[in-house]
Write a structure and sequence with these properties.
- The chain is built from 19 helices and 14 strands.
- By secondary structure, it is of the alpha/beta class.
- The protein folds into 2 domains: 2-13 and 46-197 and 375-433, Periplasmic binding protein-like II (D-Maltodextrin-Binding Protein, domain 2, 3-Layer(aba) Sandwich), CATH 3.40.190; 202-370 and 445-491, Periplasmic binding protein-like II (D-Maltodextrin-Binding Protein, domain 2, 3-Layer(aba) Sandwich), CATH 3.40.190.10.
- The strands form 4 sheets. It has a 5-stranded mixed sheet with strand order 1-3-2-4-13.
Length: 495
């Protein structure tokens, strides 16, 4: 572990861009949206309201140089220097930190670990020893939240003074997804940059739509009118002939079934009348019905270039390039990444549009956009924190100011302005991020923290390619999940 100030942190976006195969020379025509230069904009009423709120948190709470340590394992959540650098992300985090230290009189330290394992181990060791070296910790839910929750070392967030859990800077779907008997042990929102990197989306190749006379507006309008369904996506994709030879254009590039499960309004985890989690003992019929609907399409070699298979075939070996390159080379209509791709795919030579994962039917009230199990980020407070009152104020101030600095920098500028090719995609991003959903399976799935865990993995596999054994696999692993849930509730003295 390295104890360092923000002045020596290096901000590196964890998702790199892979070298493209089969690149075409010359640039393609795009409809890029740019941020106009000019005078500094006038502060909006919303920004003024947030700043006034943060000032009210600081009234009578000057901490006279008291230390505050922000700890985590992803440098994307820290400023690279204690000064402006010209980097949009780093400057946003620096502005947030500077505003808080000036208002509250804090001696702020950023402590960067080598990764999630070190954060998890250090946090558990520190609390078990009764220490309070960390005031606020960030990390992935699967690799930090799950093991520390199971170790019983996290503070109940709803008991922290000054935190307004109904505020727009805290994701409200947390209560439906991660609350245990009305208790929350971590919080998610713009306070963590991964809030904008973790959500499943669908990109469509605009060169391919032009090639096959597919109207982009028809796709966008389907979303806006609430008619963007699985069947509608399949219908649009049929404009592309079946690619039996493998040398033409695929309808689907590396499809993943699990996001469609959530977008249909289903969840792995259910809650009983006491607010305690469980999974059904037997496979509910809607799970298998959905698998029977999508798996035949996603495993059809004439329709899909798929990353998953029973033979564990390597995608690059099978198709001659990786998933992004296949899409970039105009050999696929739809690709199914998470929202981090909205930024890094701009480095590829392809014009694309963005839409949410589709509904099951038009009767469904909302779109439901699931998050990637790999990258859901949250903030945590150690159970042994000695100045919980200060931590509550600072955490709330960070979250509120993130609505100004982080949201504006990452979401409004990097994603919505610099990451897209048309204004319609900006509207799509608003729909996607307004309808994020999570599932508690991240917290009880057994298996090493570096993989998905057998229960979630069987859901991923079965909803993508292996629906033949779905029922039996589900029933076997649901029993293991049930045991893990009981152990988790026992650790937290719940149930």
């Amino acid at each position: 572990m390295r104890k360092i100030t923000a002045s020596v942190l290096v901000l590196i976006l964890v998702l790199g861009v892979l070298s493209a195969c089969g690149k075409k020379s010359g640039g393609k025509e795009t409809e890029s949206v740019t941020v106009p230069s000019g005078a500094e904009p006038t502060e909006s009423a919303e920004v003024t309201e947030i700043r006034d709120y943060v000032k009210s948190l600081a009234e009578g709470a000057s901490y006279d140089g008291r230390s505050f340590t922000y700890y985590g394992g992803q440098d994307v959540n820290f400023p690279s220097k204690e000064e402006e650098t010209g980097d949009i992300r780093s400057d946003a985090l620096f502005y947030r930190q500077r505003e808080i230290t000036e208002l509250f009189g804090l001696d702020w330290t950023n402590e960067l670990a080598e990764g999630s394992d070190e954060v998890k181990d250090s946090l558990i060791t520190e609390v078990m020893a009764g220490g309070d070296s960390y005031d606020l910790v960030h990390g992935f839910v699967r690799s930090v939240g799950r093991p520390t929750l199971n170790a019983g070392v996290l503070h109940e967030m709803q008991n922290l003074d000054h935190i307004d859990l109904e505020a727009k800077w805290w994701n409200q779907s947390l209560w439906d997804s991660y609350a245990l008997d009305g208790k929350l042990y971590f919080l998610i929102g713009p306070i963590n940059v991964y809030n904008y990197l973790d959500t499943h989306v669908i990109l469509f190749n605009k060169n391919v739509t032009r090639m096959f006379s597919i109207d982009d507006d028809d796709i966008y309008n389907s979303v806006k009118e609430g008619k963007w369904t699985i069947d509608r996506m399949f219908e649009i994709a049929k404009a592309i002939p079946e690619n039996s030879s493998g040398t033409g254009v695929y309808r689907y590039d590396a499809p993943q079934g699990l996001p469609f499960f959530f977008s249909a309004g289903y969840k792995i985890t259910r809650f009983d009348e006491d607010g305690l989690p469980y999974v059904p003992d037997k496979l509910p019929i809607e799970y298998s019905n959905l698998a029977d609907k999508i798996v035949p399409v996603f495993t059809d070699n004439s329709q899909s270039a798929f990353a998953y298979s029973k033979k564990n075939e390597n995608f690059e070996k099978k198709y001659g390039c990786d998933e992004e390159d296949l899409f970039d080379d105009d050999r696929a209509l739809f690709i199914f990444p998470d929202s981090s791709a909205v930024e890094y795919m701009r480095s590829f030579d392809v014009s694309f549009g963005i839409v949410p994962t589709p509904k099951l039917s038009e009767n469904q009230k909302n779109y439901y956009c699931s998050t990637s199990s790999w990258s859901v980020g949250a903030v945590y407070v150690p159970k042994t924190v000695k100045n919980a009152e200060m931590t509550g104020r600072i955490t709330e101030a960070m979250a509120a100011l993130s609505q100004i600095h982080v949201k504006e920098a990452y979401y409004d500028k990097l994603l919505k302005s610099q990451g897209i090719f048309d204004l319609e995609s900006a509207d799509m991003l608003d729909i996607i991020f307004a309808n994020k959903v999570y599932d508690m399976a991240d917290l009880y799935s057994d298996g090493d923290i570096n993989n998905l865990g057998p229960f979630v993995q069987v859901m991923v596999d079965s909803l993508t390619y292996d629906n033949e054994n779905f029922a039996s696999n589900y029933n076997a692993y649901s029993r293991v999940a049930k045991i893990n849930i009981k152990l988790l509730l026992k650790t937290l003295s719940l149930g």
